[in-house]
Amino acid sequence: MAILTAEQRELLKQSGGEPLQLVDPDTNQKYILLRSEIYDQLRSVLTDLDPRDLYPALHRALQDEGWDDPRMDEYNRYG
Fold first, then answer.
1. Following CA atoms 67, 63, 46, 16 in sequence, which dihedral angle do they give, to the nearest 10 degrees?
2. By the 8 A CB rule, do 42 and 28 touch?
3. Exposed/middle/buried for 61, CB within 10 Å: 0-12, 13-18, 19+?
4. Cβ contact 59:65 at 8 Å
């Protein structure tokens, strides 16, 4: 396990507990530094999530936006 540098600790303190975005200057790759508890929660949600569980909520949201309007059927011909 790597140890935080003094600069990273100071940046984390300044962020007020929010995740910290870091950039590798050699590769320009971006990374997010966050507390392990938050990572564990996110990982649990993303690992246990079945996208099919979201279908009813997505259908309701799209229905509210007019996707069930018969005039939208014309767009089905392009799929």
1. 100
2. no
3. exposed
4. no
The pLDDT, as a whole number, for residue 8 is 92
Q: Are 72 and 66 in contact (CB under 8 A)?
A: yes
pLDDT at 79: 58
**C-alpha pair distances (Å), 20 with each of 4, 9, 13, 28, 30:** 13, 10, 10, 16, 10
- pLDDT tens for 5-45 read 999 999 999 999 899 999 999 999 999 999 999 999 999 88
- Phi first, then psi, for residue 32 (nearest 5°) are -115, 125
With a threshold of 0.90, does the pTM exceed it?
Answer: no
